[in-house]
Amino acid sequence: MTTSPPPERPGYLRTLARPPRSAALRIAAIYAVFGLLWICFSDLLIETVFSPEIRHHFHIQTIKGFAFILVTAGMLYALVRSALTAVQGSEQARRTTEEQTRMVVEHVRDYAIFLLDAAGNVTSWNRGAQQITDWTEQEVIGKHFSVFYPKADIDHGKPGEDLECAAREDWCEEEGLRVRQDGSSFWARWQITSLHDAGGAITGFLAVIRDVTERRRVQDALQQSVATLSGMIEAMPLPAIAIDRQKQVIGWNPAAQKMFGWTAEELMGKTLPTVPPEQQAHYQSLLEEQWSGQRTSGVEVIRQRKDGTQMQLSLWTAALLEPDGSIGGSLGIFADLSDRKRAEEQVRQLNDTLERRVKDRTARLEEANEELQAFSYTVSHDLRIPLRSLQQLARDLLDHHGAQLDEEATTDALRIVGAAARMEQQIDDLLEFSRVSRSELATEPLSLILVVYELLGRLQRDPEFRDAQVSVQEPLGWVMGHRLTLQQVILNLLTNAITFVAAGVRPEVLISAKENGEMMQLFIADNGIGIREEDRERVFQLFERLPAAERYPGMGVGLAVVRRGVERMGGKVEVELGRHGGTVFRIDLPKAHGRGGSERTR
Question: Taking Cα atoms as reference points, which of 201, 1, 18 lies closest to residue 118?
Fold first, then answer.
């Protein structure tokens, strides 16, 4: 039980516990003082007031007696009347105070306030007491207040000890378990004050109980949370440091000891030594942000170890709240950035090295392009001159001296002409492949219908295309491409379609298109000899000719030009087997946005 020092009591407790004042003591004291003064100075007073004749006629003692009786009677009348008036006023005030106190106590609901007699039996009961304990006034009046104690406390004489404490110390208080009428227990703040009569004898006790179960539950939950958090911080692999508002260390986990070198015993209650002088201003600004309720997330800071070495860290902070919700401190969690900084430096060095290599390779590529352009010029000019001379000489030989040549010589001359023509075609194919590979292609929105019909219009005059049946399934849509390159791609695929067909079969080609997300797919299907699945990648390689195509003209350059051109325009090309034989080439090109309407050209 808590006994001293008692706190200041509420007014109603002082009223109930203080005995009334007695006017009798005051009257007796005044009477005694007056009697003493009369004995000492009455003779002098009579000699001054009465003449000698009167004093001679009346005996002096008689005069003194009558005077004393008259004066004391008047004085006593005045004193008693004054005392009675004061007592009546005090009694009325006391009754008013008691009534007010009773009304206040009766309507208090958060506190159980009731009176006990000197033996500890309940003599009064308020609504708060009924609400907290479930006892009604009719049920509890006359019962010993030990009914509110757990059985174990009753067995140990706890109720009697509490009354003895209140009687001895005038006031006692404690917090513990108490019992309701149904036997359930609750946490209570319990206060007992002794009441006294005018003579100071104990007449009873005033008991006040407050239910603090919810507060204890919150405190227990908070303590459990703190214990759990403390355990988590202790087990955390990252350094965690807690400080209070005075910047003194109140938490230091093993990971912090491992990183910084100080032990918890060295730093608890002391100012944090990990902040170097040049970081103090930044550290103070971070603290001010935390005291205002802000959090720090991933801020890079510099901190120092016990040996004086510094390191770059990443800092996260959170406020530590007091039970009343105010900010009482800060928790900081650190992550070492040394490995990340080293990795970033390595990446930077690798990027520098890669950039140098790219520059070197770009320079070598530009040099190779210049050499390729020089080679293209040589092929275009220097090689064509002797080749055309050889071809012209063979034709002149046949034209002017053909009658003089035997059959074998004529055949050889024709072979020379054919070989020269094939050689010139091969040179043209190589130049076209080189042009597509190295030239800058500026793409623009193109209507596939316009590109296809423009190309077919030119091919109608070509004898090789006269027997071919080319169909276009509209619409074809718009793509982003390079006009000349796209026409060269389609021309090469159409040439393949009418070239690689079985003997006696009329070439048939179907051109169609469809949208596929952000891409437009152009299909060119034929009824040719087809391409085996295992050869569908080989056909796009330069100078690659399949065994089945050996009997057909060509050098294996056309499809290589197709792939290179499509890729330069940001697309791709694939080949598939047609439904009824033949081959289907699919070209995927970026779709041109914002284009629509009719694509018809005729």
Answer: 201
Other beta carbons within 10 Å of 256: 26
Of 455, 583, 600, 461, the C-alpha closest to 531 is 583
Q: How far apart are CA 206 and CA 111, in angstroms?
A: 12
Q: 460 with 406, same domain?
A: no
> Which residue from 537, 437, 525 is spatially nearest to 488, judged by alpha carbons?
437
Please give the structure tokens belonging to residue 588.
């995927």
Give Cα separations from 138 to 107, 108, 123, 125, 243 (angstroms).
17, 18, 11, 9, 57
At residue 154's C-alpha, the angle toward residues 189 and 175, to 5°, is 15
In a domain, 468, yes or no: yes
Number of domain units in the chain? 4
Question: 143 is written with which tokens?
Answer: 């019962």
The one-letter code for the residue type at 107 is H
**Top mean-pLDDT range of 265-274, 358-367, 465-474:** 265-274
**Sign of dihedral through CA atoms 303, 304, 310, 311?**
negative
Residues 461 and 567 placed together within one structural domain of the fold: yes
Span 326-359, pLDDT tens digits: 888 888 899 888 777 777 778 888 888 888 888 8
What CATH number has the domain bearing residue 557? 3.30.565.10
C-alpha–C-alpha distance, residues 163 and 343, integer Å = 75
Kind and range of the H or E run holding 399: helix 384-401
Burial class (CB in 10 A: 0-12, 13-18, 19+), 574: middle
Question: CA torsion 515→458→392→388, rounded to 10°?
Answer: -40
Residues 523, 457, single domain; the answer is yes
Residues 248 and 332 grouped into a single domain: yes
Domain of residue 63: give its range: 11-101
Confidence of residue 90 (pLDDT cuts 50, 70, 90): low
CB 498 within 8 A of CB 487: no
In-domain check, residue 203:
no
Do both 444 and 578 map to the same domain?
A: yes
Compute φ and ψ for 10, nearest 5 degrees.
-65, 160
Nearest to 536 by CA among 578, 505, 501: 578
Q: Residues 360, 492: one domain?
A: no
Q: Do residues 326 and 347 share a domain?
A: no
The C-alpha R_g of the chain, in whole angstroms, comes to: 59
* Domain shared by 269 and 300, yes or no: yes
Q: Burial of 349 by CB count in 10 Å (0-12 exposed, 13-18 middle, 19+ buried)?
A: exposed
Q: Which run of H or E residues covers position 211?
A: strand 202-211
Q: Residue 55 domain-assigned?
A: yes
